[in-house]
Every structure is written in structure tokens, then in C-alpha cells.
Specification:
The chain has 204 residues and is of the alpha+beta class. The chain has a single domain (9-192), classed as Calycin beta-barrel core domain (Lipocalin), CATH 2.40.128. It contains three helices and ten strands. The protein has a ten-stranded antiparallel barrel. Strand 9 and strand 10 (164-175) form a beta hairpin. The longest helix is centred in the C-terminal third of the chain and has 16 residues, at 179-194. The protein is globular. Residues 198-204 have low confidence and may be disordered.
């Protein structure tokens, strides 16, 4: 099936729901050494009537009635096998500009660059690329994200200060398959392979 790019934030959240294995590279434009690493990203869709929507909207002076839903994001080191702490999840709330949902405000209880509540602007291009602009107290951030397949996506972000860009991050993310999921898939395929072919053979 051809890839269908999400063109609203809620469709983007729904397509992103699940666990992702992230490989990231961080390039600094100052004296800090470049970095790389691996992590897991947990994404869950948050319904419009979830109490967390109100908790994020009201401190920022936004009427929760204008929110159509959101998502929670939790990060964890790849080698950490314990369940992530849900209380540390960043909650994002979608407040679209109009009924098309192609652009709007994204409210967060904590930002990526500065751990403070922020309001971002987002929009989707015709090609399905999501762009998010965020103004922090001392920095400006831009993130762009798009799906290559249903199970593989790319994120590129930059952080700018008064004197220009000082950090760029590239992330490739694939849908995470646990050992249990992999074992179940193998067993399923073995069971299919062991079944006799019921298709009658054509005689020459």
C-alpha cells in the first residue's frame, strides 16, 4: 500500500502511537563535542476529554474547549528495560487554527530545549512534512518530521540563539519490535509455513 502522509496533528499523533527506536546525532556549532546515542520513544494519543488537556491549557490561558486532543511523549535510554516513568512524560496539546487542521498551536507542559511550558506553531506542507517552530525565553527551535514508511520516520531540528544556530540534531526512528513481538512473529510464520498448500496443482 502507498504511504499516506498525515496532514493534521491528530493524524500525526495516531500514526506515531507506539514505541520507536531512535538513533540520534547531535552537532554543536560551538566548543561542545558532537554527540550520538540511542533511545526509545513512547508515544500515546491523549483524548480531548483527558484531564491532562485541561492541565496544560489553563496555565497558558487557552480554553480547553478549543483543543482536539494531544499526545504524551516519554524518552528512555535504549538499554533501560524498566517501564518508563509516566509522570515524566511531556504532554502536547493540539489547538488547530481551523477545521482543516493543517496548522495551529501546539501546547506543551515542558519544552525540549528549555524545561518550561511553551506554545509552538506548527503546519503541514503538501508533501506531509511537519514543521514546528518554538520560541523559548532564550532560544528558538525548529523541528521538521516526516514519515518515510509507516514504520520509519525522520526528525531534524535546529536550536538558534541570538548569535545564530548552535545545535542541529538528526534522528532516524523505526517502530520498535520487542523480543516478545519478534518471537511471536517467528512462531506465526513457522505455523504458516508448516501448513500444507491447499491450492490444487494444475496438470500439464
Amino acid at each position: 500500500m502507498p504511504l499516506v502522509q498525515p496532514l493534521t496533528m491528530m493524524d500525526f499523533f495516531r500514526k506515531s502511537e507506539g514505541i520507536w527506536f531512535t538513533q540520534r546525532t547531535v552537532h554543536h556549532f560551538d566548543a561542545v563535542a558532537d554527540q550520538s546515542g540511542e533511545s526509545k520513544l513512547y508515544v500515546q494519543v491523549v483524548a480531548a476529554d483527558d484531564p491532562r488537556i485541561k492541565q496544560v491549557c489553563e496555565p497558558q490561558g487557552v480554553d480547553p474547549a478549543f483543543a482536539v486532543g494531544g499526545a504524551s511523549f516519554m524518552w528512555q535510554e535504549h538499554q533501560d528495560n524498566q517501564a518508563p516513568n509516566a509522570e515524566r512524560a511531556a504532554v502536547l496539546v493540539d489547538v488547530p487554527d481551523d477545521e482543516t487542521g493543517r496548522s495551529g498551536k501546539l501546547l506543551r507542559n515542558q519544552g525540549y530545549v528549555e524545561k518550561i511550558p511553551v506554545v509552538s506553531r506548527y503546519w503541514f506542507g503538501k508533501d506531509g512534512i511537519l514543521t514546528i517552530d518554538t520560541d523559548y525565553d532564550q532560544n528558538q527551535g525548529q523541528e521538521r518530521c516526516w514519515f518515510i514508511t509507516d514504520d520509519f520516520r525522520v526528525r531534524v531540528s535546529t536550536v538558534r540563539a541570538i548569535n545564530g544556530v548552535y545545535m542541529m540534531t538528526y534522528c532516524s526512528e523505526r517502530r520498535f519490535v520487542s523480543d516478545q513481538d519478534l518471537a511471536a512473529m517467528i512462531q506465526h510464520n513457522l505455523a504458516r509455513a508448516s501448513q500444507p498448500d491447499s491450492t490444487p496443482m494444475l496438470k500439464p
